[in-house]
Amino acid sequence: MNEEVSLEELLAESAEELSRPIQEKHLTVSIGSMPGLKLTGSRVMHSRAVGNLFENVVKYNRDYGTISISARKEAGKIIMRMADTGIGTPKEEISRIFEPFYRVDKSRSRAMGGSGLELPLVKDILEKHGGNITVKSTR
């Protein structure tokens, strides 16, 4: 749990793994420069968290949409922001998306795959590393 992991490398690896669905949906992905930003902890767990978040913004984005990822260091913590042109989450549902097996749109989730465990896993990994996650939606 004390490895130093480059955030830029994790995002590049995730982008490579998701290149097919990104191309199929004709998404434009912009990853800001973040030289020297390193996460401390388990590389495997950080990779899973970043990968799950990235996969989520790809999966629930619209065709020809955009994804913008940026990060900065603030008060000793890394703040990462993922913004997309996806379907959004109703404001009244945001507090529940980190509950295991919860799906906002049950019919769409079944068609798109997923178990409802991705975001709870991300939250758990971040909390184990002293971090947290928040979601904002315009829907």
UniProtKB/TrEMBL annotation:
<dbReference type="GO" id="GO:0016036">
    <property type="term" value="P:cellular response to phosphate starvation"/>
</dbReference>
<feature type="domain" description="Histidine kinase">
    <location>
        <begin position="1"/>
        <end position="139"/>
    </location>
</feature>
<dbReference type="GO" id="GO:0005886">
    <property type="term" value="C:plasma membrane"/>
</dbReference>
<dbReference type="GO" id="GO:0004721">
    <property type="term" value="F:phosphoprotein phosphatase activity"/>
</dbReference>
<keyword id="KW-0808">Transferase</keyword>
<protein>
    <recommendedName>
        <fullName>histidine kinase</fullName>
        <ecNumber>2.7.13.3</ecNumber>
    </recommendedName>
</protein>
<dbReference type="InterPro" id="IPR050351">
    <property type="entry name" value="BphY/WalK/GraS-like"/>
</dbReference>
<dbReference type="InterPro" id="IPR004358">
    <property type="entry name" value="Sig_transdc_His_kin-like_C"/>
</dbReference>
<dbReference type="InterPro" id="IPR036890">
    <property type="entry name" value="HATPase_C_sf"/>
</dbReference>
<keyword id="KW-0597">Phosphoprotein</keyword>
<dbReference type="InterPro" id="IPR005467">
    <property type="entry name" value="His_kinase_dom"/>
</dbReference>
<keyword id="KW-0902">Two-component regulatory system</keyword>
<dbReference type="InterPro" id="IPR003594">
    <property type="entry name" value="HATPase_dom"/>
</dbReference>
<dbReference type="Pfam" id="PF02518">
    <property type="entry name" value="HATPase_c"/>
</dbReference>
<keyword id="KW-0418">Kinase</keyword>
<dbReference type="GO" id="GO:0000155">
    <property type="term" value="F:phosphorelay sensor kinase activity"/>
</dbReference>
